[in-house]
Amino acid sequence: MKQDVAGEALLRDTGKLWVEAGSVIALRTARIGWGDPLAGDEMVRMVTEKVWAGWEVGMALATGQFGHDPETVCRRTVNHYRRAVRKNLRRLSAND
Question: What's the predicted TM-score (pTM) here?
Fold first, then answer.
């Protein structure tokens, strides 16, 4: 039963990541499409963040920081990406 609850939480958090990431993509696309003066900086930031996040996850996996059992590794990976995505969502949706 405990495994089912953990699996449901992981599925819920993964779904939230999917929605949040879609929102960030939409906000970035709008900024770039509108010709925002900061669009170029946003494109560089977007690529840099993805490379850096991948490197961080790779190092965490290689060193065992995300654990060793599949559920823990998946949960920690999703949480890692959700933190970065939520930070971008707050930044991009703020009224400047």
Answer: 0.84
- The owner of tokens 């669009």 is 39
Q: What is the predicted pLDDT for the residue at 96?
A: 52
Q: What angle do CA 71, 62, 64 make, to 5 degrees?
A: 50
CB-CB contact of 3 with 10 (8 Å): no
Measured CA to CA, the distance from residue 46 to residue 3 in angstroms comes to 35
Using CA atoms, how far residue 76 sits from 9, 52, 60, in Å, is: 12, 16, 10
Identify whether the C-beta of residue 42 lies closer than 8 Å to the C-beta of residue 31. Answer: yes
59 vs 65: CA distance, rounded Å: 8
Residue 80 CA: distances (Å) to CA of 37, 38, 44, 58: 30, 26, 21, 12
